[in-house]
Input
Amino acid sequence: MSRFVDVAGVGDLADGSMTRVTVEGRDLLLARVGDRYYSVDDHCPHMGGRLSHGTLDGTTVTCPRHGSQFDITTGRVLRWTHWTGIKLALAKMLKSPRPVKVYPVRTEAERVQVDLE
Output
């Protein structure tokens, strides 16, 4: 069952920007790409970095800690870390790649709402 919660106004975010919102104790990244809004957990599943402190390029968010990248439309891992070679192999052995949790988003009456269910 859906439970949409108001998190922002439609005009609060510029195109290509992102911010952290805290809703009911959850830290979420809210991003706007064109006329669409997306929301994922703000904590990187690799090492817990705040994704909202990283960079957004289209629908790809890059974690500021180790360069992990995720598609904010699906949560899919695009790159687990910016490391290469043996460091990358060890990083994957110690903590296997995991997607970031995605939350459905809708706009209603000029408000952005995130589904917390």
About this structure: The radius of gyration is 15 Å.
